[in-house]
Structure formats: C-alpha cells, structure tokens
Amino acid sequence: MNIAKIMVPKALTVCLSANDTVREGVEVMRRHGYTAIPVLDMNGKFLGCVNDRDFLRFILTQGHVDPGEHETHTVREIMRQDFCPPVAITDSEDKLIDAALQQNFVPVVDDRGALCGIVTRRMLIAELAGRDLPPTDGAFFEE
To answer: Do residues 97 and 119 lie in contact, with contact meaning Cβ atoms separated by under 8 Å?
Structure first.
C-alpha cells in the first residue's frame, strides 16, 4: 500500500503550532469540530497531537474558564508527545493498520520528522475494501 496515495496532505490538514496559545487551540478545535489535531514546530516538524481532553485537563487544572487567562500558556505546554504517534511515509501497511487500530487518524512523517499528512481510519478502511470515498471539501474531516 502506498501511504502517500491515501493520506490527506499536510496542506489540507488542520494543524496547530506548538507556540499557539491554549485559547487559539481551543478556538481552532471548536471552529473545525475536531477532537484531536497535529502539533508542529515552526519548521513543520511533527511534535505530537493535542486533543480535547488535553484542553479540558488544562482548564480544570488552572481553575478558570476565562479565555483571556488561556493566552499566557501555549499548546506545547499541554500536549502529550506520546499521544497519536506517527508512522513514516515509507512504513509498511501493517504498521499503518496497527497505528490506525489505536487512534482515529495517523500522522505521516518523512525521514526528517516533518508532517506529510494524515491517514484517517475511514480512508484506510476504504482503501483496504477497494472502495472510493466520495469527494470532500479537502479538509481533514473525520471524527
């Protein structure tokens, strides 16, 4: 299986910067309706993913819901680097399937660790079943 053939390219994937504020991260997740989003450094290197539980944990720990208070903390501070680990674009079909069994989407990185895109479970299942997916608006859409 050619991972590049079935992945959503980085240009069409919603990502957060590690330096985005917690408030910005919450707003992006709310606007797009996602529960998890890849986090990149300033050079496009994949650092991990952040999910809605990370934001909720942060808000509960801080003890306030005022969005202004969330502008002093960054996504880097709340993300877990072990959440939603990536596969290499050259990895085997088995490794991609194993990762997809554990997470809703699988980040795909190149040999420099830069994000190339993501593979959603939906896309992987369609590929394995030999089915074409209906066209979308191009953005990462699965949940």
So the answer is: no
- Which of 50, 109, 58 is CA-nearest to residue 80? 50
Give 46-110 as a DSSP string: EEEEEEHHHHHHHHHHHT---GGGGGGSBHHHH-BTTSS--EETT--HHHHHHHHHHSSEEEEE-
CATH architecture for the domain at 3-129: Roll (3.10)
Task: Say which residue the tokens 């990149």 belong to.
Answer: 40
Convert the pLDDT of each residue in 61-89 to its tens digit.
Answer: 887 777 777 788 899 999 987 889 999 99
Q: What is the pTM of this model?
A: 0.85
d(CA 93, CA 102): 15
